[in-house]
Design goal:
By secondary structure, this protein is α/β, with parallel strands linked by helices. Helix 1 crosses helix 3 and helix 1 crosses helix 4. The chain is elongated and about 95 Å long. The chain folds into two domains: 85 residues, Winged helix-like DNA-binding domain superfamily/Winged helix DNA-binding domain (Arc Repressor Mutant, subunit A, Orthogonal Bundle), CATH 1.10.10; 210 residues, D-Maltodextrin-Binding Protein, domain 2 (3-Layer(aba) Sandwich). The model has no long low-confidence stretch (mean pLDDT 87). Helix 5 links the parallel strand 3 and strand 4. The strands form three sheets. Strands 3, 4, 5, 6, 7, 10, 11, 12 and 13 form a nine-stranded mixed β-sheet that branches. Belongs to the LysR transcriptional regulatory family. GO terms for molecular function: DNA-binding transcription factor activity; sequence-specific DNA binding. One of its GO terms (biological process) is DNA-templated transcription. This is HTH-type transcriptional regulator DmlR. It holds the Pfam family HTH_1.
């Protein structure tokens, strides 16, 4: 007889507390269930069930075998579900959390093509500037920039972006240009208040030394575009990703604050809940984004 069927019959008898209910659960006859269990006991050379006229219960050996058998059956079920999932067409509502700046500038422009390729998926994109709790808040995935804090989530790198300190020429004319990292203590800094690290800038000196600059800052904003606007207005030095400042720098609206410093690179990741397999709609969207961004290099467009 099939080993898995024998195992399933035995485990179902234990779960249901008897052969009659197990037969109903499996959709086969009571005699067939009994035959499967007897065959299993004969093959193992051990009695797995105590049978009385009133009840059926596992023996000590049967209970130990049940624990392992249930794990094997669950794994087999998940393997079947994985194959079914991978072959099914992506569909359903895809709820995404993404930072406002990145969502507006780089995710929204490519969504149309994705929806045309996957007409059975409905996208609900939520723009916010905080780290949402994916599972408890009902999100399928999120796009996150920089260091990933929650190691329990699965992540796939989409691309990366350069991050530099920038300010307007008018600011440098009024306050001078910092020559080194320590000079920043004498300048007006503009902070991104939603950044997980707070008012701390992680920089690399020309020597390669890693530095952390912690200052109160003159202005804190929870929106990157507003922070860029403040820098363009000459209010101070901002530390921003290139996908925000690139166009303004090409137009001469902002400049490098300390040009000699090495460029800091930040990864841009798709993160999603852990599990043995990924939902088709999530996998389809991540694959689409990887392809959309793979030829862009460091994100400065």
């Amino acid at each position: 007889m099939d080993r898995l069927t024998e195992m399933e019959a035995f485990a179902t008898v234990v779960d249901q507390g008897g052969f009659t209910d197990a037969a109903k659960k499996m959709g086969i006859s009571k005699s067939a269930v009994s035959k499967h269990v007897s065959s299993l006991e004969a093959r193992l050379g051990a009695r797995l069930l105590n049978r009385t006229t009133r009840r059926v219960s596992p023996t000590e050996i049967g209970l130990a075998y049940y624990d392992r058998a249930r794990r094997v059956l669950n794994d087999a079920g998940e393997a079947d579900a994985l194959v079914t999932s991978m072959q099914s067409a992506p569909s359903g509502i895809l709820r995404i959390s993404v930072a406002t700046d990145f969502g507006v500038n780089h995710l929204s422009p490519v969504l149309g093509r994705f929806l045309q390729e996957y007409p059975d998926i409905t996208v609900n994109m939520v723009l916010n500037n905080r780290y949402v709790e994916l599972i408890s808040e009902g999100f399928d995935m999120a796009i996150r920039i920089g260091e990933l804090e929650d190691s329990s989530l699965r992540a796939r790198k989409l691309t990366e972006t350069a991050q530099r300190m920038i300010a307007a020429p008018s600011y440098f004319e009024k306050y001078g240009r910092p020559a080194k990292i320590d000079d920043l203590n004498e300048h007006k800094l503009l902070h991104y208040s939603s950044q997980a690290s707070g008012n701390v800038w992680k920089l690399t000196a020309p020597s390669g030394e890693k530095r952390q600059i912690r200052t109160a800052g003159w202005l804190s904003v929870n929106d990157g575009q507003s922070l860029l606007n403040a820098a363009i207005a000459g209010l101070g030095i901002a530390y921003l990703p290139s996908f925000l400042y690139h166009k303004a720098m090409k137009q001469g609206l902002v400049e490098d604050a300390i040009p000699d410093l090495p460029t800091e690179m930040q990864g841009i990741y798709a993160v999603y809940p852990p599990g043995r397999f990924t939902q088709p709609k999530v996998r389809a969207f991540i694959d689409f984004l990887v392809e959309a961004f793979q030829n862009k290099g460091p994100l400065d467009w």
